[in-house]
Design brief:
Spore Coat Polysaccharide Biosynthesis Protein SpsA, Chain A; two-stranded antiparallel sheet; 10 helices; alpha/beta
Length: 291
């Protein structure tokens, strides 16, 4: 059973990042020298995904920006670097151009607000697959690809309706996330969104934007099935799947970090730099000045 396709949704209008997101999508803000969206694509590539559908925010420049980033040849940049004797600096650009097939679409403006609507917008690209990956570009994984982990779990449980990624989180954070309730067999029962007190959390496992879904999810991810605040929620559809079969909960082998707001973005950026760059020691010494 081969999982070939992934949907990556961008971050909507990202009002907490204004004014910069007036002009560029939040998923194009850099982590190190790469935009967040590229790191999500690389996670897919590492797991052998062959086609990626990026769902851009409608009525913005997002689609145009993604198209240019992933498909624009930048021949003028290449020629200038070659003229300057710096041809090797074009290699990271060529790596982007050599990614597997990337299709950029816009979210259907007729769908209700909610994180399920970008997935519905990409339905025609994945509805004939055995299963497919869904990723929210707000979420980054450091270490082993969560996409790889999801695929490995699905190979062990080929009759599962879905597989969702999970990470153990400290009690002080439970009120900020969707906390996972398990059935007796260890599969998903339901998710408690942002429990107000620790005793209302069914476990220390949180769910975030890494899913392997089967096309059956589209039976429940429909515009008429809106939930809290009138939004179309992916988690609501996954919970419906759990009522009809097994939704496997796969603990991440990496570390989940979120870029959902400027504070967490800064910490995610810092941790990425500390883990993945050759100037990490210099940054560490600089930060230590402010202890």
């Amino acid at each position: 059973m081969s999982i070939k396709k992934a949907i990556i949704t961008d971050a909507g209008f990202a009002s907490r990042y204004l004014p910069i997101t007036k002009t560029i999508p939040k998923a194009m803000i850099p982590i190190g020298s790469k935009p967040v969206m590229q790191l999500c694509v690389e996670e897919c590539v590492a797991a052998g995904i062959e086609e990626i559908i990026i769902v851009a925010t409608p009525n913005t420049k997002s689609r145009e920006i993604y198209e240019d980033y992933f498909h624009g040849k930048a021949d003028n940049v290449k020629a200038l670097l070659e003229k300057q004797g710096k041809a090797s600096r074009f290699e990271p650009v060529q790596e982007v151009l050599d990614f597997p097939k990337i299709t950029v679409i816009e979210q259907d403006v007729n769908l209700p607000y909610g994180n399920g609507s970008p997935i519905v917008s990409a339905k025609r690209y994945v509805e004939n697959e055995d299963a497919f990956i869904v990723m929210y570009s707000d979420d980054l994984i450091l270490g082993k690809s969560d996409v790889q982990t999801l695929i490995e779990e699905y190979e062990k449980h080929p009759t599962a309706k879905a597989v969702i990624a999970a990470q153990e989180m400290p009690e002080s954070t439970w009120s900020k996330f969707g906390m996972i309730a398990l059935k007796d067999n260890g599969t998903l029962s339901h998710i408690v969104e942002k429990p107000k007190t620790p005793d209302l959390s069914p476990s220390n496992l949180t769910s975030y934007g890494r899913y392997l879904l089967t096309p059956e999810v589209f039976d429940y991810l429909v515009p008429s099935n809106t939930g809290l605040d009138g939004e179309l929620w992916t988690v609501d559809a996954i919970t419906k799947l759990a009522e009809t079969g097994d939704v496997v909960v796969a603990k991440s082998s990496g570390k989940w970090i979120t870029t959902g707001d400027p504070k967490n973005y800064f910490m995610a950026h810092l941790e990425y730099v500390m883990r993945n760059t050759n100037y990490a020691d210099e940054v560490r010494q600089f930060v230590l000045q402010y202890k």
